[in-house]
Amino acid sequence: MNRFAELLDRLVLTPSRNGKLTLLRDYFHSVEDPDRGLALAAITGDLNIAAVKPAMLRALVVERMDPVLFGYSYDYVGDLAETVSLVWPQRQGHIPNHMPTLAEVVGRLQAASRSDGPKVLARLLDDASISARFAIIKLVTGGLRIGVSARLAKQAVADLGKVDVAEIEELWHGLTPPYTELFAWLEGRAEKPRSAALALFRPVMLSNAIDDGDLEKLDHGAYGAEWKWDGIRVQAVCEGGVRRLYSRTGDDVSGAFPDLAAAMTFEAALDGELLVGDPREATGTFSDLQQRLNRKSVSPKIQQRYPAFMRCYDALQIDGEDLRTLPFAERRKHLEAFIKTLDPSRFDLSPLVEFPDWETLERLRQTPPHPIIEGVMLKRWDSPYLAGRPKGPWFKWKRDPHTIDAVLMYAQRGHGKRSSFYSDYTFGVWSGPEGSEELVPVGKAYFGFTDEELREIDKYVRDNTIERFGPVRSVRADRRNGLVLEVAFEGLNRSTRHKSGVAMRFPRISRLRWDKPAAEADRIETLQALLD
Amino acid sequence: MFKTMRASDLLKSRPEGLYCPPGDFFIDPVRPVGRALITHGHSDHARSGHRSVLATQETLDIMGLRYGEDFAGTTQAAVPGETLDMNGVAVTFHPAGHVLGSAQICVEHRGMRIVASGDYKRQKDATCLPFEPIRCDVFITEATFGLPVFRHPPDHEEIARVLKSAAQFPERSHLIGAYALGKAQRVMRLLRDAGYDKPIYIHGALAKLSEYYQSQGIDLGQLEPATVESGGKADFAGAIVVGPPSAFADRWARRFPDPISCFASGWMRIRQRAKQGGVELPLIISDHADWDELIITIKETGAAEIWVTHGREEALVRWCELEGIAARPLHLVGYEDEGD
């Protein structure tokens, strides 16, 4: 248990992806079964433990200590799990003779009935170290929140056996904690696990961005083009009565889209984009789509107002036949025929974009017919469906990003390599009537510049600081003074969380405008005009 | 013994600091005074410019290193355990276990005994003498970590975490932020005790004090200046570097390859504090008593009354109430709440 607790402690404070991977890999390498598999399940969210409510946790602790002292402590720390892990009193005269393993902790929690759950939890906390108490409380209150995605954990597992993460993802839904057969395979002690489970995830094929000069080398006749839809990449798999809607990383998202899942009455594995609206009439905008994202439960009203549908662009399997080795042109024919058999309010076909030459496609790309199109996709007619991101068969050619000139307002110190640099920038644009303009923050960006430019901005921040709060510096920014940043972004959403009312998608610094006076930066109205 | 003295007449709070009217001296005054008794060398307790200073020899040496030899009009070394007479008030210094030379000051007059503990800790520390509990009527305790959430783990476990991380990330350097007096030397000594025998690189601000510790027989092993001249970025790969915490946010830190920022402090117990400070590897190593040490110490002194200074007074006062011990906060100005 202590090793798992130590891992969580490190992960939560390690900002870099590579650092996290090293910590995870070392853990999976050095810890034995079944503890490591249970840890993996805890991180990927596949561990089933009956949840304990915060109020119950609080009740347990104030049975054991003065409520006033607990109150002072909780006020200071601000996080219930952490406070309880720190103040939990050791039982007088009780010295645990054995630190329970993660497997023992999980076993006891899973075996506990609803009524004796709190007692079991208290006993576990009595015997644990402070770090272990924190980890146990995280396990029972649900959601570790340690900044590690399921995908990153799977990547670490893949690294352990030097296999592609796609192989892990393909196997994943057929496996259960503590994944002993998976680790045995990765360590070369056993065959690759074969799964009898139905409707498994197929690792998806991804595209590369078109770079300058790429097009000249490509034969336009060898490629088909489609619009690039800015929805959610999904894979709909139905097999022997089992239906699953997967995200592109293999997470099952059926629960969030019950309306679409209910229409999945076929035997196939389809690849496509989840969008909202009725495909026979109108496709919703990105703002409409947002109404369906990050929701725990979806009310019937929302489902009716923003129905989910799938715009299909590939068929991986139809009626038991694996199509992935066929060329795209063949798969497309199968798909076109198959789509006709599906509910037209929930499934449609991503249309092909005809183009005689690259110039024509370039024009179409710049002026797409719908706001939710973010460019075009190029797919080689003769390429099979390959997992991962092979270079060559699929390209994405996005429309040019929007740009805006904004003024640097706050700078925050970075992490790791950048911990001595002010590298995270909050920028704003002008708002208010002429003569009394003020800056409103519209976004935050921390990349897009070179190392040399980072050094220049860092110096500017240090020389123009007007206030400091912890790691953040407020930078001089008024009509006469200020650093103008050209910010590129992919789109804009309405936001109730930001004072400016807008939130940028994927903002990055595209140019430093040392030459531009702060007063000439853009106004908020320029952004507002981009909304819908 | 019959007490003809009220505690509040023996020691009282004044803007300059804690004052003893019958003895006519201050303890750790924050402004220049005629006669100052100083518990230890941290700058918020030991200031320059007093007419006369009474402190342990080590504290006097440290003040000399920090402020120059003329930091006070006259100085007198107090020998721990030996009682001095100051205008009829009996004064005895006792080890406080905080940093090298740190002392509690026991003040006794007409049957009333008060111990001003300064800053103290109870965990073992190879760089200074251990704290001695002194029976007294009134015990003045610090409360820097006066909340039940502060529980310092054994320091060797924390050091083991640095060494483990150094093995996991051999291409990166580990930067340990530690206050220049006491904490830095304790961390270096702990590294040595854990078997780390490579050179430790130090920031210039640590050089004089570390040299002084070594001259007092506290072996810190080979220390090298962490200057650019002593090596390029690659030379600091795998290195352990110790410096004052402020230096790590500074441009100074850029000479190190992809550094992992560590910070040795009792505050590192709270994750959010570590996160806000950009600390990747918090080391809970403190020179102040944690909650358990505070309450054990209060019990061991047998004091009927507790005065609580700088820190989170309210929780400790509440605990004393529950235990039936009289307690009140003693408001002294000028001490850093954050110092550790």
Explain how this protein is built.
The complex is a heterodimer of chains A (532) and B (340). Chain A is α+β, with helices and mostly antiparallel strands and 532 residues long. Chain A is built from 20 helices and 20 strands. The longest helix of chain A is centred in the N-terminal third of the chain and has 14 residues. The two termini of chain A are 51 Å apart. Chain B folds into two domains: 185 residues, Ribonuclease Z/Hydroxyacylglutathione hydrolase-like (Metallo-beta-lactamase, Chain A); 129 residues, 3-Layer(aba) Sandwich (Rossmann fold). Chain B is built from eight helices and 19 strands. Chain B is globular, with a radius of gyration of 21 Å. Chain B starts with 6 loop residues before the first helix and ends in an 11-residue tail after the last strand. The mean pLDDT of chain B is 93. Classes of the chains: A alpha+beta (532), B alpha/beta (340). The interface between A and B is large, with 35 and 40 residues.
- Residues in β-strands, percent of chain A: 15-25%
Strand order of the largest sheet of chain B: 7-8-9-10-11-18-19
User: Which structural class should the secondary elements of chain A be placed in?
Assistant: alpha+beta
CATH evolutionary superfamily of the largest domain in chain B: Ribonuclease Z/Hydroxyacylglutathione hydrolase-like
Give the proportion of residues in helices of chain A.
25-40%
Shape of chain A: globular
Known CATH architecture of the largest domain in chain B = 4-Layer Sandwich
Biggest interface and its residues per chain? A-B, 35 and 40 residues
Low-confidence stretches of chain B: none
What's the rounded overall pLDDT mean of chain A?
91
Based on secondary structure, the structural category of chain B is: alpha/beta
> How many structurally independent domains of chain B?
2
- Determine and state the CATH class of the largest domain in chain A: Alpha Beta
- Apparent shape of chain B: globular
Instruction: Report the biggest beta sheet of chain B as strand number plus sense, adding barrel if it closes.
Output: 7 strands, mixed
The CATH architecture classification of the largest domain in chain A is 2-Layer Sandwich
| Percent range for β-strand residues of chain B | 25-35%
Q: What fold name goes in the CATH topology slot of the largest domain in chain B? A: Metallo-beta-lactamase, Chain A
Count of DSSP H/I helices of chain B: 8
